[in-house]
Amino acid sequence: MPSIRSAHQLGRHARPIRSADPLVLSGVERWDLRAGELRYAGQARVDGDLERLSVAATATEPRGLAFEGTLRLVDGLAFDGRATLDRFDPASLGAGTFLGTVTGTLDAKGGVDAFTANGRIEAGGLPVGPLDVALDGGYAARVFDVRRLALAATKSDLRATPRAQWTSPRAPASASPATGPR
Do 21 and 35 touch, CB atoms closer than 8 A? Predict the structure, then answer.
């Protein structure tokens, strides 16, 4: 059963507030966030409770990103769903222009500290055709860790399995440049 730690002091002790029934969330949420020069905007339709919240979200800025799946908002963040990229431009997040626009779908599962993403994308700036992607990574202690990344061009024998860690990634949290893999 989810509980919320009360900010009010009753006597000398803070007491948890417990709910007999789950907190139900339903509706449409719009967001418009700014981080330095970067802007993130969009809307999401949500339905469920903190244990299992169904989400269908579409970003309007940067354009070309959508997520449909479930979120678990108790005991840490967890997600399970499909991310869709539709002519998404990574340069809109300060990630450079070498990929060009990206189109495809990735099945994503996990949380902030550990996640996987698998699917097929096509990057307009890479002349290799569609790429099968398998990513195992995470973010903790201000380090984005790519534990495993496998890329395979479906129209050729091209395969790549780079491994890297980035400290101070550029987007989405700050506009400062990335320090690069270590």
Answer: no
